[in-house]
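Hi R.,

Quick one: here's the tryptophan synthase sequence you asked about.
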Amino acid sequence: MATHSLFSANSLHTKPSSGTHIKVQEKWLGFTALDRKPTHLKLSNGCRARAALNADPRSIEIPRQWYNLIADLPVKPPPPLHPKTFEPVKPEDLSPLFPDELIKQEASNERFIDIPDEVRDVYRLWRPSPLIRAKRLEKLLDTPARIYYKYEGVSPAGSHKPNTAVPQAWYNAQQGIKKVVTETGAGQWGSALAFACSLFGLECEVWQVRASYDQKPYRRLMMQTWGAKVHPSPSNLTEAGRKILQMDPSSPGSLGIAISEAVEIAAMNADTKYCLGSVLNHVLHHQTVIGEECLKQMEAIGETPDFIIGCTGGGSNFAGLSFPFIREKLKGKMNPVIRAVEPAACPSLTKGVYTYDYGDTAGMTPLMKMHTLGHDFIPDPIHAGGLRYHGMAPLISHVYELGYMEAIAIPQTECFKGAIQFARSEGLIPAPEPTHAIAATIREALNCRETGEAKVILTAMCGHGHFDLPAYDNYLQGKLVDLSFEEEKIRASLARVPKVGG
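And here's the predicted structure, written out as tokens:
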């Protein structure tokens, strides 16, 4: 690496009445059956659906502010550090990558951040998203538990990712930026950013982890349809990518490598900025629209969750659902168990070390204190879906250290078994990522069957699996196997984590 300077170019509604006829294409509103004793409506084609008389999603207002959990924490999280000086990062250090407003949000201690009207206008395409009671799954499991899931797959990109992609694109456009670059693993984030950029006239360039680029051509085509350029990572287009390919020409790639490539391009071009789909504070803030809506929806039906369960890779979906509930927990208004679920193949919270590490493989980004498996850790390419990042969001890692949440890791065959149960009872095919939360939810529901307790379980269904069917094919054919956790591989990776202290 020619220089260690940070980001150097050279360094690596209306509620229906009981007799209302509704259109067939609006049947999904019937899935938001949030009342405990649902009323059934006769559809015009003779089908029947449950009416959400107490919580029509259109009666819940789209949040006007994002929530910043940092404001309510008794101990503030450790700051990111400059990779050369090990001193706290200053705003000007981040300016080559992010527009001014996002830098301000990243360091903010304010409790709430106003959502621009232009962003809320786009949110209206899919927000508020439905909260759905999984009554058919409850029946299948023969459990007294009441299971609810917040469904983010209704967005144009099919996941929760546009909740932050839209504001990130908008803030860049407002500052006159012409182009943004990013990385993507499973493709959900790249799809979301390509969608957002198409709305605000920005060019978009994406480095997609090679394993996913090969396994998921339709995610790539989605990005290209919205106008993005997509490259497999590692690539020969960057110094970081060429270095990896020299060491391993058949490298399956990793999010850390793809981040290095995108950051390198952003640092070299004044009219180009970088966007990240998870991990950073401002991304987690943007996702809290999920939890804020969910609080209102559950209040409308008179329910309070006993368990809140979400999948974690970088952490944005989990934070989006849980952080508003943690706020209420800190106020003493409720006391749910808050559980993060990660893949056994990439278990940063349960097997990683809480220390300062780079956010990318090449060591170009600031050092963040987080639970990490080591910045050059590469998950096995047969690990299905996303949740492949080597580290956990620093803010989630901090909350975990404070004891406000717990974490478990589940192997992928159990996750897909749960996904099949969910799809065949609820009708929705989950993306591989939320199958982890579904598997943990099923565990808890079966525990309730044993104890007889009618617990309320809230989980995050952060996206659909329509572009992930090859993973389901592998599972159904018996080709999907659990990956053994390679202790030696992790030890080797952690040995290369920088020694910072603190």
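The first strand starts at residue 39 and ends at 42.

Cheers,
M.
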